[in-house]
C-alpha cells in the first residue's frame, strides 16, 4: 500500500512539472488593461493586511514582508501589516481568505504550493474562489545540505542517493504536489532513481525546514535558495546545485544542467484577495502592486533575494491561475487523490 501511495505521489509530481516549467518566462505588467483603470485610488493604500499561509521565515513570508516594506517605504501604501496563518500546506490561510468575502483590505501571498495543497489536503476552498491580483516572482530551486554534511558536491549526493535511496531523507517546505516536493521527485527521475523509493519529509514552510537542515535531520533539502541566503552566506548551509537555467548571483554553486543533470525547474509566487471585493478595491490593489513593481527598491529586492521578475496582473494572472488549478485538479482526479 505504501508503495502504491508513493507511486501516486511520484505521478502527481510528474504531472505538476508541466505547470512549474510553464512559469519560466518573465511576465509583463498588465498596465494597459483594466487593472490600472480609473477605479484605482489616487492616494496610498491604507491599512492593507497581507496574510502569509505558512510559518515565519519561509519563502511566502519573506516575499510578503519585502513587498510590504517596499510598499510603505515608497509611500505606495501606509501601515501595511503582514501576519502568518499557517497550516495544512497553506490551506488554512486559503480558507480564511475565501471566507473574508468582500474584504478589500486583505490579501494573501501564495504560489504553486498552495495550488497543490488545496487538492491533496481536500480543501473545500480553492484559489479559483479568490480575486487574483498579481504574480510577482519566480525562482529556481536549490539542493542544500548543512555545513557538516558529508556531501560536498551534487555528484557526492547523487552517488550516495542512488546507492540507497530510502536511507537519505529529503526535506521540503511544501506538501506533496508542491514545489519543494516536485523538485526532488524530478531530480530522482533525472538521475535514474525510482521515485517510489524517495523518502520525502514535508515541513510547513521554509521557517520549519531550516532547523531540520541545520540540525542534520534531513539528508538534504530542496527549496528556494532565497529563503536561506543568510545561512548560505554564513556557510551554515551549503548549496550543491540550483535548478535554473543560469547560476544564481551570489550563490557559489553550479546549475543541475552544468553538473550533467538534465533538469530545469522554477517556482512562482503571487498575491490574491478575497472573493467579492469591489472593482474599485481590486483596481486600487493592483495599481499599488504595479507601482511597487516599478520602483528601484523592488528591483533591488529581486536581485538581493535571487528572485526572477515574473510580474503579471489582472486578467492575465487570473487566466494563468485558472490554468494552474485545472492542471493540478486533472492530475489528482485521475489518481483518485482529489
Observed structural traits:
338 residues; alpha/beta; 10-stranded mixed beta sheet; two-stranded parallel ribbon; 12 strands; disordered N terminus
What does the largest sheet look like? 10 strands, mixed
In sequence order, what are the helices and strands, one letter per element? HEEHEEHEHEHEHEHEHEEHHEH
Radius of gyration based on Cα positions: 19 Å
**Coarse shape:** globular
Helicity level: 25-40%
End-to-end Cα distance:
18 Å
How many individual β-strands? 12
What amount of the residues lies in strands? 15-25%
Structural class from helices and strands?
Answer: alpha/beta
**Individual helix count:** 11
User: Would you tell me the overall average pLDDT?
Assistant: 86
Low-confidence stretches: 1-41
Structural commentary:
- It is built from eleven helices and twelve strands.
- With 338 residues, it is of the alpha/beta class.
- Strands 2, 4, 5, 6, 7, 8, 9, 10, 11 and 12 form a ten-stranded mixed beta sheet that branches.
- Helix 6 links the parallel strand 7 and strand 8.
- 51% of the residues are buried.
- The N terminus is likely disordered.
Blueprint (SSEs and pairs):
Layout: H1 2-21, E1 45-46, E2 49-52, H2 59-73, E3 77-78, E4 81-84, H3 91-99, E5 106-111, H4 112-120, E6 131-146, H5 154-163, E7 169-172, H6 179-190, E8 199-202, H7 206-214, E9 220-224, H8 229-234, E10 237-242, E11 266-273, H9 279-293, H10 296-304, E12 308-313, H11 314-334
Parallel strand pairs: 1-3, 2-4, 2-5, 7-8, 7-9
Antiparallel strand pairs: 5-11, 6-9, 6-10, 6-11, 6-12
Amino acid at each position: 500500500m505504501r508503495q502504491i501511495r508513493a507511486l501516486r505521489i511520484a505521478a502527481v509530481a510528474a504531472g505538476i512539472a508541466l505547470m512549474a516549467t510553464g512559469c519560466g518566462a518573465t511576465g509583463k505588467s498588465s498596465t494597459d488593461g483594466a487593472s490600472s483603470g480609473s477605479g484605482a485610488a489616487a492616494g496610498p493604500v491604507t491599512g492593507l493586511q497581507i496574510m502569509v499561509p505558512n510559518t515565519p521565515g519561509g519563502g511566502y513570508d519573506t516575499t510578503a514582508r519585502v513587498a510590504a516594506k517596499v510598499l510603505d517605504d515608497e509611500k505606495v501604501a501606509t501601515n501595511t501589516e503582514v501576519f502568518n496563518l499557517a497550516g495544512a500546506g497553506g490551506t488554512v490561510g486559503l480558507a480564511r481568505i475565501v471566507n473574508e468575502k468582500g474584504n478589500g483590505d486583505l490579501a494573501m501571498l501564495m504560489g504553486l504550493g498552495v495550488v497543490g495543497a488545496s487538492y491533496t489536503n481536500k480543501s473545500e476552498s480553492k484559489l479559483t474562489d479568490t480575486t487574483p491580483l498579481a504574480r510577482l516572482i519566480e525562482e529556481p530551486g536549490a539542493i542544500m545540505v548543512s555545513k557538516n554534511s558529508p556531501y560536498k558536491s551534487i555528484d557526492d549526493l547523487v552517488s550516495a542517493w542512488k546507492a540507497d535511496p530510502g536511507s537519505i531523507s529529503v526535506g521540503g517546505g511544501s506538501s506533496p504536489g508542491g514545489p519543494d516536493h516536485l523538485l526532488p521527485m524530478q531530480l530522482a527521475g533525472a538521475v535514474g532513481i525510482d521515485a517510489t523509493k524517495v523518502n520525502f519529509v514535508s515541513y510547513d514552510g521554509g521557517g520549519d525546514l531550516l532547523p531540520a537542515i541545520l540540525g542534520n535531520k534531513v539528508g538534504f533539502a530542496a527549496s528556494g535558495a532565497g529563503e536561506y541566503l543568510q545561512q548560505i552566506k554564513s556557510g551554515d548551509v551549503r548549496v550543491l546545485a540550483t535548478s535554473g537555467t543560469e547560476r544564481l548571483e551570489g550563490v557559489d554553486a553550479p546549475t543541475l544542467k552544468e553538473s550533467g543533470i538534465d533538469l530545469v525547474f522554477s517556482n512562482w509566487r503571487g498575491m490574491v484577495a478575497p472573493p467579492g471585493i469591489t472593482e474599485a478595491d481590486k483596481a486600487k490593489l493592483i495599481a499599488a502592486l504595479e507601482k511597487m513593481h516599478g520602483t528601484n527598491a523592488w528591483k533591488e529586492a529581486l536581485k538581493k533575494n535571487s528572485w526572477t521578475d515574473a510580474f503579471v496582473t489582472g486578467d492575465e494572472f487570473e487566466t494563468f491561475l485558472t490554468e494552474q488549478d485545472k492542471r493540478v485538479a486533472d492530475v489528482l482526479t485521475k489518481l483518485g487523490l482529489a
